[in-house]
Request: fold
Amino acid sequence: MRTKSAEQKLIAATRIPATAAQAHFWLGRIYDFKGNKAEGAFPGFHEEVSYRPRAEAEFEAAGEPKPEWILEANGLENSVKAADAAIAKLQASPQASASAIRNAIDVRIKLRPDPMSYIAGANLLLARNSDLPFVLRLAAEGRVAGDRFIWENESSYKLDGKVRGSLDRNAAVFADIAGWALYLQGDLAAAEKRLAEAARLYRNVDATNQLHLAELSRKKNDLETAREHYLTALGLAGITPPQRDQAKAALAEVQAKNGENPADFEKWLAATLERKREERRKALVSSMADRRVPALVLKDLQGNDVDLRAERGNVVLLNFFSAW
Reply:
């Protein structure tokens, strides 16, 4: 979780005879992960092939690993799995108390403070409308933990833009969590501020956030804004089936309050979503047509910088793809 800090301390430990072998072993594990196992392990992560020979060198310097080193590594992983299982068991139990859930979440975070441990814990309590002050604490601390996780593993993203995007998404998810907790507490003004912050960082493409904004607008009796948020959510590829059902049911109620005929709802919804999709497509195309390509400096397959300004006047094909 904190790769840069761990690497620095382990490098220092390799200079101490009493800890050198074990430090080389753990450095080897870090470099092996970065070089061979990072691809897709976390959102945006990529393998860094330059670490592969470094991993081999560290394992060679460590020599035969002692059984207790392996046990230590396996012990941590088993503890994390046990903590996750404990939370899952509480999640499945309607009778589980808020204090038991809070204690289980604290145990999990103490073992490994990755962003998902905060997100999963907060969402578990939000689903029960329970212990909302603790949820707000999780949102604040999770934002900090998430930012640290990203910066500690900056090189795994390979591109500055992916680092920036990850930081924005991290801020967005915890702003949305905080906003929904504030909404459930009845603080609509503060909730609107945090949910709008999340929408800006998400660029309005997160279904959960759009549904939260829609519910807030309905609470304020702003039916027109609520309808737009429901329609935005329904037009997103990432919306889940339960969220889709929730949005459609709520939108049907909004339309009925506006005097629309319920019998025409499905036909109206299909036509409206298709019109909005076409509007988005035209906006995306027209926003780039006849515009100069920005001054991009990109990496080729060998890791060399390629400055597109040197290709002015030539025909250049840019192939954008995702590694996952």
